[in-house]
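User: Hi! I have a protein structure encoded as tokens and I'd like to know what sequence might fold into it. I'm fairly new to this, so please keep things simple.
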């Protein structure tokens, strides 16, 4: 049984506020459809067979998806029907095509002139940058183009006027345009390469999954699994949105597509409307934290850290599970408090029947995971998984993918990619400025200085910066900028924190002792015995920066140091999600509010509360080995982490199976702190667990007695 999608005219009007206004006419639709299929086929060819220069491929990627944006999205919503505007946008398409041809045929001539620009070089490179800004403005608003202009002007104009640590002597406009357009550091650098390879192939894979009916299967399976649970419809939202979000790559799209089913279900069951919208927003936001796709974040993280994609998604799995459990605990608490009932729609859905009709949708995901584990590249694995989707669809009665469905999936995948492609290419300009000027290292030093060397306050500063950036930047772009700027500071503080713990406990490996011989020969006898934390911190502070990298490798091991780098980036990636649910700009919560017909800002506040895992879990990453720990450590962290999060939710809500009095609420908070506080003795964590279980049992008895 597949749920119908409840909608009203008012709801559709409200949801339009969260979707970009597209042109639509018969011939534009046909041309865009044809161009989309061409781009999909071309990218599949490029990622599997072709051996073309990366600069050419990146330019083609930008031109193709830029052309889609230009044709689909007019410069102003008022010009959707304007023929003059369409003519101008057609000229933009021709200019983009000319840009690709210019790079292919005239790049060698530039180097033959000793990288000295002639008139054509000036025109083409300037036009490419300006077109990038305009296309991003159309798809994402003014914030990112203004950010790019500020960054570019810093390099050539006002950087030299600044005093202090942010001063920059400046580059010529010719050098800036060369690095922005012709080199592999700017528009067509590593971010662009990630866009046309990993990101596109997985977005295309997601489009094929949706076309094959996997979306309906995910919703029905979630409803079947959660129907017998207390607060079943709320858990449908958590499960369904998490699974859908793992392949959709967009929290807002995830909210709109699943929310029109889950939010009415929750309301009919008895959940308050604002709570239902908040749960959908929080769960949809978490979809990008869930492997295997994680939006585009996993691929960018793999590129930044030089750690394999499989390792990244493996590290992301347990934290993502903790996040969704934290949202689920809010569902259970509210379900008990609001006396939520099971809905008739869910009672008719049986797990065995859903699996019998849709088990084949699991096969492509199995193929994907198997290929990744076997060591195949993500692009190759995604390509074969797309073929697996097509083959598996023939096991379905309703969604067999013939030639028409395959072409539709290709076209939809390309259209889904268009805004992401131009955005990532534009962000490459900002990343180029950061790397060219050294602003990233300066910003990291500044964060460390502001935080006074405190890891906790550094995370707080990164969270504030992510919230501010997230008001104008999409999640992926926010992560790229913040990761470039602040990941070094977080990495240094986390690694130094672990090094200090080793010195204080006397467990520093012998191989690392030699460096301290150069720093303070008198301390050698104390290294094996341990020392107070403050003394260990002072000792580490004396190590010259040139030797710290070697010290970390010797003390912690190169593999563990790599996982600390992943931890730093994962923390930033998680914190970059908070703009989806944190007022004043929280589009995911606003989209859910449009469906639930609740006040947007109040809904945003509710979603922000329900998404507390976005802040708690990164702290666990920073202060424990939640990422990169051994099996025993992970089991202990997860066991106490799950109950600790439940206790924290109970303390926040004042409800655990039944209403908590103020003293019991304080006890619940104390239990949460004992179970979540890093590196406590296990007997203290056990005391916290015991307190929580007693409160749970007492609350359950009280609830049953009042029923």
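Assistant: Happy to help. Inverse folding works backwards from shape to sequence: for each of the 707 positions I chose a residue that suits the local structure. Here it is:
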């Amino acid at each position: 049984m597949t749920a119908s999608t409840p909608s009203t005219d008012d709801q559709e009007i409200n949801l339009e506020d969260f979707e970009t206004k597209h042109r639509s006419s018969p011939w534009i639709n046909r041309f865009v459809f044809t161009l989309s299929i061409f781009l999909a086929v071309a990218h599949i060819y490029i990622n599997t067979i072709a051996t073309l220069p990366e600069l050419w491929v990146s330019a083609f990627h930008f031109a193709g998806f830029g052309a889609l944006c230009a044709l689909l999205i007019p410069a102003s919503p008022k010009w959707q029907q304007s023929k003059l505007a369409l003519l101008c946008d057609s000229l933009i398409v021709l200019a983009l095509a000319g840009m690709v041809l210019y790079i292919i045929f005239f790049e060698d001539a530039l180097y033959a002139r000793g990288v000295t620009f002639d008139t054509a070089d000036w025109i083409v490179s300037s036009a490419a940058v300006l077109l990038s800004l305009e296309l991003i403005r159309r798809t994402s608003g003014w914030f990112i183009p203004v950010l790019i202009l500020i960054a570019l002007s810093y390099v050539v104009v006002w950087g030299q006027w600044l005093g202090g640590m942010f001063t920059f002597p400046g580059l010529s406009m010719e050098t800036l345009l060369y690095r922005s357009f012709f080199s592999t550091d700017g528009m067509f650098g590593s971010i662009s390469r990630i866009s046309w390879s990993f990101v596109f192939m997985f977005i295309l894979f997601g489009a094929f999954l949706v076309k094959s009916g996997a979306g309906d299967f995910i919703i029905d399976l979630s409803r079947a699994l959660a129907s017998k649970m207390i607060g079943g419809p709320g858990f449908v939202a958590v499960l369904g949105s998490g699974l859908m979000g793992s392949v959709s790559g967009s929290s807002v799209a995830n909210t709109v597509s699943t929310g029109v089913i889950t939010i009415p279900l929750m309301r009919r069951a008895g959940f308050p409307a604002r709570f239902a919208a908040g749960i959908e927003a929080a769960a949809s936001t978490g979809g990008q934290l869930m492997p295997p796709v994680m939006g585009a974040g996993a691929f960018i993280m793999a590129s930044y850290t030089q750690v394999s994609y499989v390792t990244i998604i493996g590290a992301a799995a347990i934290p993502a599970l903790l996040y969704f459990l934290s949202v689920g605990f809010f569902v259970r608490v509210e379900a008990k408090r609001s006396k939520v009932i099971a809905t008739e729609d869910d009672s008719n859905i049986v797990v065995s029947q859903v699996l019998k009709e849709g088990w084949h949708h699991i096969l492509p995901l199995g193929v994907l995971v198997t290929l990744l584990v076997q060591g195949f590249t993500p692009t190759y694995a995604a390509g074969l998984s797309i073929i697996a989707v097509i083959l598996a669809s023939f096991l379905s009665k309703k969604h067999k993918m013939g030639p028409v469905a395959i072409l539709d999936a290709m076209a939809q995948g390309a259209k889904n990619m268009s805004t992401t492609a131009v955005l990532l290419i534009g962000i490459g300009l900002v990343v180029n400025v950061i790397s060219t000027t050294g602003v990233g290292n300066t910003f990291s030093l500044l964060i460390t200085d502001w935080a006074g060397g405190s890891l906790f306050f550094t995370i707080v500063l990164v969270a504030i910066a992510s919230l501010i950036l997230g008001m104008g930047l999409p999640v992926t772009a926010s992560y790229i900028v913040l990761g470039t700027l602040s990941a070094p500071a977080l990495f240094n503080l986390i690694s130094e924190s672990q090094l200090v713990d080793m010195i204080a406990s006397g467990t520093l490996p012998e191989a690392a002792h030699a460096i301290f011989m150069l720093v303070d020969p008198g301390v050698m006898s104390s290294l094996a015995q341990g020392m107070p934390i403050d003394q260990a911190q002072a000792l580490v502070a004396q190590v010259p920066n040139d030797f710290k990298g070697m010290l970390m490798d010797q003390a912690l091991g190169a593999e563990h140091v790599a996982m600390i780098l992943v931890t730093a980036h994962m923390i930033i990636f998680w914190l970059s999600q908070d703009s989806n649910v944190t007022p004043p700009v929280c589009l995911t919560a606003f989209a859910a509010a449009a469906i639930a017909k609740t006040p947007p800002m109040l809904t945003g506040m509710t979603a922000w509360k329900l998404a507390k895992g976005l802040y708690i879990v990164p702290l666990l990453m920073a202060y424990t080995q939640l990422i990169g720990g051994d099996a025993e450590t992970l089991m202990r962290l997860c066991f106490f982490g799950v109950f600790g999060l439940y206790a924290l939710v109970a303390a926040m809500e004042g409800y655990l199976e039944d209403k908590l009095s103020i003293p019991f609420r304080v006890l619940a908070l104390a239990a949460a702190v004992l179970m979540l506080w890093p590196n406590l003795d296990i007997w203290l964590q056990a005391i916290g667990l015991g307190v929580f279980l007693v409160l749970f049992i007492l609350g359950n008895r009280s609830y049953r007695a009042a029923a």
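A useful reference point when you look it over: The first strand starts at residue 655 and ends at 656. Feel free to ask if any position seems puzzling.
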